[in-house]
Amino acid sequence: MPPGGATASASPRVRPGTGRTPAALLCDMDGTLVDTERDWLATLAELLAEHDADAGTAALAPFAGLPLDGAAALVARRTGLAAEAAQARLDAAFTARVRAGVTVQPGALALLDSARGMGVPVALVTASERPIADLVLATLGPHRFTCSVAHGETPRGKPHPDPYLAAARLLGVPATACLALEDTPTGAASARAAGCRVIAVPTVDGIEEAPGTLLLPSLREVDLRALPLAFGEDGG
User: Fold this and answer.
1) Is 113 a known active-site residue?
2) Digit-coded pLDDT (tens) for 31-62
């Protein structure tokens, strides 16, 4: 399987529980590392509008963070289009947008390189299908990731904890010692359910700041060395 799809490659690891840095950095993809969430919502809006369904901001909000099959099922309920047809249309249109090029979120590459320089392994944990994940990995640089988990590679997807638990298992560290980066309520719920600390840079409303969950305006604000202070801990 392409970079990191099934097994983790050899890479430096951080001992869990150092109190200074996370054991691993587990990164959502769409909307978090790359601005594909906007492309995804635009793809959905086009299909909904084509069938005279509401494609406004509020109507699109429930789609944020959903995998392809879940989004297709919701489109089918709203439009009367068969779920299989909706999935095929969404897949083709979104893939074309991603192939045309994606915009990397500000601060994303610097953060990934910072983690690598500190010996903190990085996993991509995405609700996108494997072909989309591999297209984005090629843009971000597969060398920046120790492994990746795409939709359909775990028994359940987000918002269940399975994708984050699988990534931590591939890296050989407990999920409770990991930091997750997310942008949607669905993704944040998945990471929290796995026991990760979460930094969210929201692209939609609905993520609440709480113990173990920190909201920031940009990935540029993430400092892996300052996490204990950021989360109200003493840093051990």
Assistant:
1) no
2) 999 998 889 889 999 999 999 999 999 999 88
